[in-house]
Amino acid sequence: MASISFIIPSVNRESLHRTVASIEVRKGDEVLVEYDLPPTGRWGNDQRNKAMARAIGDYLAFIDDDDSYVPCHRQIMEDAITENPGKPILFRMQYPDGRYVWKVKSIYPGNVGSPMILVPNDKKMLYKWFSGRNMADYIFIRNWGWKDEEVVWSDKIIALLGHNNERLPI
User: What three-state secondary structure class fits 157?
Assistant: First the structure.
């Protein structure tokens, strides 16, 4: 069984407790919360980089402090890892109004988000999260060492987003 490092950048919102409580951990998993206090407005990207540097899990999963995982997400992740060892996996995530991301199996801004990412913790293949960028999830995925054809797209929703983002073209 692969271990997962769950990475949460946080500005210490009330919803952080809900986020942490939604994480189903198994032996070897870890939950890494990196605080951005006082908030810098850099979208949590510096915190993701710090947590990635110290993460020891076989895989990395990212979730924001206003989002939560669906029940049984850990088993969904484990099944995907078993079926696709060593590959990055992009799941779906859903907004409160029912919209979900992704709709098309393609890496472009607005079609990917950090809570959908499950990626091997291979430091030489990973890219950094750009500070102060609201498209850092897209940049992170676009520039990692895996080729587009190596990315696994899973139809399963693993994360529920705590907000509606009307800017997404979905």
Answer: strand
